[in-house]
Amino acid sequence: EDASELASGNIVGSNIANVFLALGAPALVMAIPTNMPGVARNAFVCLVATSIFILLIFLGNPLVMWQGAILLAGIFIFLLWMFRLAKIGAEDPVLADITEISQDKDGPPASVWVSALFVIAGSVGLIAGGKMIVDNAVDIAEFFGISETIIGLTIVAIGTSLPEVATVVVAAWRGHSGVAIGNVIGSNVFNLFAVGGASALAGPVAVEDKTVMFDIWVMLAAAAALLFFVLSRQPIGRRTGLVFLVSYGIYLGVRVLGIT
Questions:
Q1: Is the distance from CB of 183 to CB of 23 less than 8 angstroms?
Q2: Domain residues for 138?
Q3: Cα separation of 204 and 208, whole Å?
């Protein structure tokens, strides 16, 4: 559909919200440790993925098939790396996030046919839900006379980040701190490489000029801030969570009010 600016806005906005909102809000309730094995490595990968995405935008806007192929190659390499780490038994927060559900005794039955049914049902629901989100987001943009990018950066991005907030809260509450931060890092890498790549392959993905001038740098700053706290080995506590939320509020205000 002709909503490519919505797609690019959602990718950028979701990555910003995942750091400032999905980590900031839970941190007000409980500190999120950052000193687990593998966290720094994955936070660095997230920063590299963010930098590659930005570089590709400057090499050509809109993003087209060759850029999409590079991004998809990135997620392919990342998943191969995860597979290798799992094979050697390395501790990794993103792997912990991936395997957490399968280790939950209250999860779906282990039957292959039941699992296949869940995959099919989930895929159908994902496609239908995605179409509803796009259709209604475009309608909202047209009704209020604002750009699709703004809707993608705000309403859609916050909506897609709410599951990350829930996951971080539950994981931290259960003491799975590695899963908490691994979920955010893994989600951001997936957004940039898989979602960005697939979108560019499906059709040109336009990135609004204001997004190029402002939003992508906020996304880069969010990734850098996450890496900074991980390298400092300091937990993301109440004070940092408040700073994250205030920063996110200022960002939304600046963007929605059109100050940039």
A1: no
A2: 4-103+111-256
A3: 13
Cα separation, 250 vs 210, whole angstroms: 16
Q: What is the CB neighbour count within 10 angstroms for residue 67? A: 24
N- to C-terminal Cα separation, the chain: 28
Residue 99 has pLDDT above 60, yes or no: no
**Which residues, other chains included, contact 189 with Cβ-Cβ below 8 Å and sequence gap of 6+?**
42, 45, 46, 49, 75, 78, 94
Nearest in space to 165 (alpha carbons), one of 14, 6, 7: 14
Q: What is the mean pLDDT of residues 216-242?
A: 91
Take residue 191 and report the two structure tokens written for it: 């957004």
Mean pLDDT, residues 54-63 taken together: 95
Q: Which helix (H) or strand (E) holds 102?
A: none
How many separate domains does the chain show?
1
| CB neighbourhood size of 53 (10 A) | 27
Highest mean pLDDT among 83-87, 108-112, 177-181, 216-220: 216-220
How far apart are the C-alpha atoms of 144 and 41, rounded to whole Å?
43
| pTM, full prediction | 0.81
Q: Provide the pLDDT for residue 182.
A: 81
Lowest mean pLDDT among 38-47, 129-138, 239-248: 129-138
CATH number of the domain at 209, please: 1.20.1420.30
